[in-house]
Amino acid sequence: MKHLISIKYLNLKEINSIFAIAQDAKKNRRKYSALLAGKNIALIFQKPSLRTRVSFEVGIRQLGGNCVYLGCNEINLGVREAVSDVAKTLSRYVDGIVLRTFAHEYVVELAKCSSIPVINGLSDLLHPCQALSDIFTIKEKFRKLNKVVLSFVGDGNNVCNSLLYLCASLGMTLNIACPENYAPQHHVVEEAKDIAKASGAKINISHDADLAVKDADVVYTDVWTSMGQEAEKAERLKAFNKFQINEALLALANKDCLVMHCLPAHRGEEITDAVLDGKNSIVFDQAENRLHVQKAILIKLFK
Ligand code: CP
Ligand code: NVA
């Protein structure tokens, strides 16, 4: 593993090794406390963040390293300076980069032009650290991932795309329900279906939330309006109104079906308070696991 750009570039052995290290790092925090000693990681964030920023900063420090945070108004990636020049400059100062940005091409370009590892901390296309933490969280609750039915109800966005690649690799069943014009990207679905041929994963995409949650062990949702799409909010609220995770929808899923959300949530839109705060919600386990799984990713990239 040289970078973490997309889960589609990880093989099963690498995915399982990330999960195994995350599990170990969660139990034995001290064991890895010098792994990044003397190393500096730059965090370039062109969008807001709570979980990703804090879990990376704390995780890097727990591994003995330092971070340099470069927020929205600092380097103005691709505008003040070409992505390739930023990549080459930072490669002379720091040992790794976490990038949260809009265009996925920026992540690809930054990795191509850097001589140090690059981690995708969210792009408009993908959110690989999120999906890895999510499936690690599911693995903690269920023994066999290939027996788990995960239903994603909502926007076919960056989180959904990364879940598609990961569920496909792990032989899971992923049911996606989204409004007609908000399906996950065609090329992602095709690539995931291709991966699924070898793993036995089942990927079903429909426009019917009731159908998608039938037999679900876990129901997952994310915001209807992602960062950068704010101008489309009114139109999206209309298009998604049948795709809310509420108690009536959950009643159609398996008994004790768990509820996930990557957060931040727009309460009252994609999910009700009763469900988000309900007894089957594992959203803060998910949030916690960002820390452990990202430490595992750093350990894989820097060991
Ligand atoms: N889930 C997630 O990535 O949260 P932040 O946007 O707060 O980092
Ligand atoms: N789909 C959301 C995820 C936030 C963690 C967004 O891109 O805004």
From TrEMBL:
Gene Ontology CC terms, in alphabetical order: cytoplasm
Record keyword Secreted present: no
GO biological process: citrulline biosynthetic process; L-arginine biosynthetic process via ornithine
Pathway: Amino-acid biosynthesis; L-arginine biosynthesis; L-arginine from L-ornithine and carbamoyl phosphate: step 1/3
First-level EC class: transferase
UniProt GO MF annotations: amino acid binding; ornithine carbamoyltransferase activity
Binding site for L-ornithine: 158, 222, 226-227
UniProt xrefs under InterPro entries: Asp/Orn_carbamoyltranf_P-bd, Asp/Orn_carbamoylTrfase, Asp/Orn_carbamoylTrfase_sf, Asp_carbamoyltransf_Asp/Orn-bd, Orn/put_carbamltrans, OTCase_ArgI
Annotated compartments: Cytoplasm
Reaction(s) catalysed (UniProt annotation): carbamoyl phosphate + L-ornithine = L-citrulline + phosphate + H(+)
Enzyme Commission number(s): 2.1.3.3
Entry-linked Pfam families: OTCace (PF00185), OTCace_N (PF02729)
Binding-site residues, carbamoyl phosphate: 76, 100, 127-130, 262-263, 290
Occurrences of domain Aspartate/ornithine carbamoyltransferase Asp/Orn-binding (ranges): 149-299
Membrane-traversing stretches: none
Keyword annotations of the record: Cytoplasm, Transferase
Family to which the UniProt record says this protein belongs: Belongs to the aspartate/ornithine carbamoyltransferase superfamily. OTCase family.
Protein name in the entry: Ornithine carbamoyltransferase
